[in-house]
Design a protein that fits this description.
Layout: H1 9-23, H2 35-42, H3 46-58, E1 62-65, E2 69-72, H4 76-102, H5 107-117
Antiparallel strand pairs: 1-2
Helix pairs in contact: 1-3, 1-4, 2-3
Length: 122
């Protein structure tokens, strides 16, 4: 994992865990690696890792089970998918339409371009 200098490391680590949950690399009801394992693997201060996991607990994506560790909550992938779809609609699609309008790409041409990128016949 390559950390950038602009965002706090604990937030970047939390985002990486979110992506692992969304992709299925970390599955519902499964334990995530321990704070110690993550800190050793990435060369991070354990407090940084703890800050990241606490953030995900607050977001309702992880749960702490006493004596067992931290686990991905049952609805975490669904929750992340809903949030990602909402961001996609509100940010990515909006920016795409605005850029197409700026370039004088018609609605039909934009739809055709999207279909071509999906590999569909136009």
């Amino acid at each position: 994992m390559n950390f950038d200098q602009k965002t706090p490391i604990y937030q970047q680590l939390a985002e990486s865990i979110r992506q692992d949950i969304l992709s299925g690399a970390l599955q519902e009801e499964n334990a995530i690696p321990s704070v110690r394992q993550i800190s050793v693997e990435y060369g991070l201060n354990p407090q940084t890792v703890l800050n990241a996991t606490q953030l995900l607990i607050q977001e309702g994506l992880l749960e702490k089970r006493r004596g067992l560790g931290m686990f991905v909550k049952t609805d975490a992938p669904k929750q992340l998918n809903i949030a990602a779809c909402e961001r996609f609609r509100n940010e990515t699609i909006q920016a795409l339409v605005e850029e197409a309008q700026l370039l004088s790409i018609s609605r039909k041409d934009l739809i055709d371009l999207i279909q071509q990128n999906y590999g569909e016949e136009v």
